[in-house]
Hints:
The chain is 31% helix and 24% strand. It is an alpha/beta fold. Helix 4 (127-138) packs across helix 10.
Amino acid sequence: MRAARYDSYGSAADVLRVVDIERPEPGPGEVRVRMELSGVNPTDWKSRSGATPRPIHGFQVPHQDGAGVIDAVGEGVDPGRVGQRVWTFLAAASGCWGTAAQWSVVPSRQAVALPDGASAELGACLGVPAMTAHRALFADGTVEGKDVLVAGGAGAVGHFAIELAKFSGARVATTVSGPQKAGLAAAAGADLVVNYRDADAAEQLRAFAPQMDRIVELALGANLELDLALSGPRTHIVDYAAEPADPVLPVRRCMSANVTLRFMLLYTVPADAQDQAAADITRALEAGALTALPVTRFPLDQVVAAQQAVEGGAVGKVVVEIP
């Protein structure tokens, strides 16, 4: 089969190659997926570059997310799953078989049935961002009837956080950096979109909700001043991204607000919480509540360019077409 792979950490141009390798076979509890599209996330280039290294299992086919059709199952898996359209999550975290290949092998629970009304393109864009958004929103309980602030509402995690929160009955405000991203966040359903560079950003948000119940955060150090201005005893700030430098926490202000800080990394979220996220995302898909961001496609032979685009901060989602 054709597959992208790397054997050591480094730049995409230096270590990432598209080669012919042997097609994998599913082991006990696993399924094999004939991939159609492979989604690219920041975690993929960070793992490949060594910025946030993950173990290389002899060699590594990159990418956690994708969409395709199950064509074989291992021992202990219902044979009826053969032919099922699925989206995957954390494929490359399970071993060497990420989704940037014609076939990938993953544990059965990490290949989730894709509802008939959902496109492969949307399915390939779920995985890491949608499950991260779910954990940030729901790790501390329901958001029904609550006020939610999503930092970076035009990014992939922010996009799905807005849509999942709205689907669950929350009021949602979000921050963005400019008009193009404001349009994307509004299209996702945010009730209020604020440019965080505005001098009165805090006042605009306080007029919406004097105290947020949940703040989904991607830049804690840069945004903590704004977050604390909107925080109180019922506020949970959930940070899912690490900046180059660790923030300095104003402990007394955090104490005075009685705010709760939660940190999360999808790789180490408990399996039962991952499974609940997959189930809830599926319900939202079935209801038509989730949509795709603008998508840029690259053929598999241009996987280096695809990863470089994400590393360069491409707006929307990048996917790789699998031949």
